[in-house]
Task: structure prediction
Amino acid sequence: MITVGIVEDNVKIRSLIQRYLDMQDSMSCKVALDSVEEMLDHLKKYDKPDVLLMDIQLPGMSGIEGIGIIKKEYPDIEIMMLTVYHDSHKIFDSLVAGASGYLLKHTSLPEIKESIETLAEGGAPMSPQIARKVIQHFSNAEKKKKPESNLTAREQDIVNGLVDGLSYKLIADRFDISIDTVRAHIRNIYKKLHVNSKAEVIAKSLRGEI
Amino acid sequence: MITVGIVEDNVKIRSLIQRYLDMQDSMSCKVALDSVEEMLDHLKKYDKPDVLLMDIQLPGMSGIEGIGIIKKEYPDIEIMMLTVYHDSHKIFDSLVAGASGYLLKHTSLPEIKESIETLAEGGAPMSPQIARKVIQHFSNAEKKKKPESNLTAREQDIVNGLVDGLSYKLIADRFDISIDTVRAHIRNIYKKLHVNSKAEVIAKSLRGEI
DNA sequence: CATCATATGACATGATTATGTGATTGGCTA
DNA sequence: TAGCCAATCACATAATCATGTCATATGATG
Result:
């Protein structure tokens, strides 16, 4: 038997879902509240549910803020977002905060039920559009990390030295060249990257912009 | 009508899936080959399918290498992995390479069919266990970036200035304080972080170690 | 209330960095 | 082969940074 809680401020939707879920043999849904604050209050006093359905737009604290707090206090509760928002930011913020599923509100009641079961079994139900955005996040993340260095191998060496926090002297020692040569390389690096301090080179490098 | 191609070296599985899919009203599956190399050959000569089902372990080129090549040549083909592997590396490599779906091989034929339809509609079908790993990737990524700063808010401001590549003077201007105050803060920052150069602070910060 | 942490500021000095100018060598290529 | 570029080194100087020492003011905390 899976126990389910709901945080959703639209009374109609809330009681519709609650009644449907509670009528299932495999689950029980006795708690359906307006806000994260009320849910936190409830969790303190009574048994905690296995799964929480959570809206994002709520009176008071947002659902996303709520995830973090609830997950911190009760890490065993699985949280599934159920919301109209499908913009990447809300999706990622939710997942990062600790949500394990993300459904859009047009999801049918039977699908919600199945998703809750999937969640309880250790899966991560997502509406297909959501999954697509999550996946795109990967391809994009990797695609834009090829900004054509222009730097020679030696110059890259020097950059690595800088990133390691070395002084000119230590870089010279590391590569067994004179400090003036290091200067010369760094001059050229600055020209190529259009910067004029170690700091900027290090920042660019660590941001993957080299 | 969705046209589907299959790259899978196990003849039994391959022809089973092919026959099942081809018998559906909504799809056609005429091409089922052993290897990426053969598929590339085929794509050059004949019409390209809408969707490709792809194994990872294959004779010759691996399925993951194949994704990249196929996606580069024919970006419109949607690729769905169908494999026994559920380790994070293979999953992420596949997604990064450009796969839009990832099913495990125990998936039932009707589910495979539905997943292909979802894919054709712009969704991203994944087995629930896979989705879970993908989501965990997010929570983990963010979780390990809490190394207890110890830095005060003001010190963080200064660090941000450094990361932006500013000189002491410019940091002083940005926060409307004297350059000697900036020095004082930086002294304290160095003490707390056990470093002694801008470079190391920037590196630490960008590595998420602050 | 006394103390401590934080934020602010000043003055000083040696170290390092940024930048200019110029030179030599070895490889590659038009 | 002439010319270009990468890599090496030198000398010079102004700017910036790292660090020491000291001081004042404020708010929090015991």
About this structure: Chain A has ten helices and five strands. Chain A touches chain B at residues 92, 95-96, 98-100, 118, 121-129, 131-132, 134-135, 138-139, 141-142, 162-167, 195, 197-200, 202-203, 206-207 (CB under 8 Å). The first helix of chain A runs from residue 11 to 22. The longest strand of chain A covers residues 27-33.
